[in-house]
Amino acid sequence: MTTLTAQQEDPFLFLEDIDSKGAMDFVNAHNTSTVTRLMSEKTYAPIYNKVLEALNSTDRIAYPTIAGDYIYNFWQDAEHVRGIWRRALKVTYMEGSPEWETLLDLDAMSAKDQVMWVFKGAGGLYPKYNRFLISLSKGGGDAIEVREFDVQTRNFVRGGFHLEESKGGADYVDENTLIVSTDFGPGSMTTSGYPNQVKLWERGTPLSAATLLFEGDTTDVGTWGYVLRDGDLAYTTIVQAPTIFTSSTYILVGDTPVKLDIPTDASIKTLLKDQLILSLKTDWEVAGTRYPQGALLSIQLSSLLEGKKEIRLILVPDEWSSVEEVYATKNKLLVNMTTNVKSVLNQYTLDAEGWHATKVGAPDLGTISIDATDVFSDVYFFDYTNFLTPTTLYVADAQTHQVTPLKSLPAFFDASKYKTEQFKVKSKDGTMIPYFVVSSKTIKYDGLNPTLLNAYGGFEVSMLPYYISSMGSSWLDNGGVYVLANIRGGGEFGPKWHQAGLKEKRQNVYDDFFAVTQDLITRKITIPKHLGIKGGSNGGLLMGVAFTQHPELYNAVLCEVPLLDMKRYNKLLAGASWMGEYGNPDIPEEWAYISKYSPYQNIKPGMKYPEVFFVTSTRDDRVHPGHARKMVARMEDLGYKVYSFENVEGGHGAASTNEQRAKMVALEYAYLLMKLK
Fold first, then answer.
1. How far apart are CA 174 and CA 179, in angstroms?
2. How many C-beta atoms surround the C-beta of residue 261 within 10 A?
């Protein structure tokens, strides 16, 4: 074990250096040990083969992005390992027989450049969409390189716009102008690692000559620029975010950024026919009228820029409902809501009397996601799924109300043998917490069922039902039970559900998780010997808290790309941006409550911890891989056996290719079956 001097507070700080030889020697040794052990399990190879076959299947849905007359899509399979960016005429796509034209081959580009390129999206030039700004990552991290691409010549534009690697991005203001937020040099980035300046950059000039529009504070989370479009009208927009949950929005009027007089914690969803659509996180009182927390409303943008507020209420969710997605077509507003963790899609029309809703004819009792809308028409795409129903992509027309299934995933396992149930359990403070259980129809309630419990509990992220294709064949077909918990900290029931788990209230999140755990045991679905848990990122923190606070409840823990050292999280990569969620450990009063649950600081000798499996990525530039590395080193130093795997690329998703994803899934399920069955 590598050691540091006695003056250093943490003997494993060297593992926070991503590129140091000591850190990588540590990683390589642990990867070899874990992979050798788990790949030798007889379950690994069948799972790997099934998952890779599903991921590479040509029967998968090619999800659309609409730009002009074309549908754009990024695709990976056995032939295109790193992927291709392609397009097809919209008419052929909607007929179900797209004629794809490859625009950019990431495999060929990676081989030529000797760089592990990962596609991170593309933004087109309105209205012709003949040029795009393509975002590319080296190895899958959040930092991107931006290059201008001509879809007619299928080449990067010689002498075109080009941004070096940085967290940030750019958007077209017009053919010859970009609004840019990137690393402009010393003083231009925040302590969270995001841009602090927004500039206008003219074609043919060096980036150093770009005109400064706005500069935030280096202690902000970040400042970004983009173009907010309303048909042919375009608003150059700047967002300054002091925290992850608050921001001020400015619209460029002439050469002057004009601040919008809206709540700093309100979320701008879209713009439709001069109506700025806002979602409220807290109550807002305007001219004697109170608009409640969670409400969706519209405010006329042209009047707002003149200092007046013309507000219309769109909807107010009830206690068990939440607004999940809001998008605009050319003429209609689409609002995707959840009620008791099930989706309902409505479209809204505005007239002189206000907003009027019409329910979209989508399937019930599952999860709906809006995939793409069209600025030139009322055509849009959405998909529907649930745990046991393969995802189906629908094309819809908000003008005619026609909804047509376009493409469905094949069934990757026989779902007829399984059932889905939803339960609720009372948490420590009396709050009712819902959760889903997917199990065999012939399940025996004897406590002997291998069970996997998954949750997240943070950042207002909702955990909704989804088609468990690889889990069905890898886990359910091997006798497993799957549980998805909707604990506080998430967004399943609106802002209040999230805010109930912030900062000093964080223990509520963990108590909810323990309540679900105990209820599974009470119902005799499982017992601790057969119970495993899984979570990533903030969910990885949840896993760390779970096995340190209640090691007696679990026999397997999948802790993926986790936060674990909450004493130093705000000093690592993007960590400072999350202090609005967790608190500031440098303030004694806030460290007092963080310290009670921080997993790294709460590891103790002489405990009966489960043999945890830690997963991370060397190229994760959001949550530092040092969290997982240090936890592994600390636990081994105290004599605990753990498993650890660090993929060399993949960013915060921990994998960049289908082969890497299949390997990760197979390693994890081999571990779970070894420990729980």
1. 9
2. 14
Q: Give the pLDDT score at 39.
A: 86
Q: Is the pLDDT of residue 404 over 90?
A: yes
As given in the structure block, the two tokens for residue 198 are: 């927004």
The amino acid occupying position 510 is Y
Measure the CA–CA gap between 522 and 106, rounded to whole angstroms.
51
Between the alpha carbon of residue 350 and those of residues 37, 297, 332, 357, 539, the distances in Å are: 61, 12, 8, 9, 40
Read off the DSSP letter of residue 8: S
pLDDT computed for residue 7 by the predictor: 35
Query: How far is the C-alpha of 52 from the C-alpha of 659, rounded, in Å?
Result: 6
For the full predicted model, state whether its pTM sits above 0.90: yes
Q: Which of 76, 80, 102, 98 is nearest to 89 (CA)?
A: 98
Is residue 631 within 8 Å of residue 600, measured between CB atoms?
yes
Residue 502: strand, helix, or coil: coil
Q: Is 386 helix (H, G, I), strand (E, B) or coil?
A: strand
DSSP state of 603: -
159 sits in the region (left: phi over 0; alpha: psi -120 to 50; else beta) called left
- pLDDT single digits (tens) 597-633: 999 999 999 999 999 999 999 999 999 999 999 999 9
Three-state DSSP at 104 gives strand
Element spanning 55, H or E: helix 44-55
Distances (CA, A) of 31 to 255, 593, 642, 644, 663: 54, 34, 12, 6, 12
The whole-angstrom separation of Cα 158 and Cα 160 is 5
**pLDDT band with cut points at 50, 70 and 90 for residue 42:** confident
* Euclidean distance between the first and the last CA atom of the chain, given in angstroms as a whole number: 34
In this predicted model, what pLDDT tens digit does every residue of 473-508 receive, in sequence order?
999 999 999 999 999 999 999 999 999 999 999 999
Number of C-beta neighbours around residue 31 at 10 A = 15
CA distance 118 to 126: 25
β-sheet bridge partners, residue 358? 347
Judge whether residue 285 has pLDDT over 90.
yes
| Cα 229 off chain centre by | 24
Candidates 113, 156, 97, 163; CA nearest to 131 is 156
pLDDT (0 to 100) of residue 3: 33
What torsion, rounded to 10 degrees, do the Cα atoms 411, 412, 413, 419 define? -60
Complete DSSP assignment for 613-676: EEEEETT-SSS-THHHHHHHHHHHHTT---EEEEESS-GGGT-SSHHHHHHHHHHHHHHHHHHH
Q: Concatenated DSSP letters for 268-287?
A: EEEEETTEEEEE-SS-EEET
- How would you list the strands of the sheet with 367-373, edge to edge? 367-373, 379-386, 389-397, 402-408
State the DSSP string of 134-189: EEEEESS-S-EEEEEEETTTTEEPTT--EEEEES-EEEEEETTEEEEES--STTSB
Catalytic residue list: 537, 652
Q: Report the amino acid identity of residue 248.
A: S
Q: What is the pLDDT of residues 507-528, one digit of tens each?
A: 999 999 999 999 999 999 999 9
| Selection from 267, 266, 312, 270 nearest residue 289 by Cα | 312
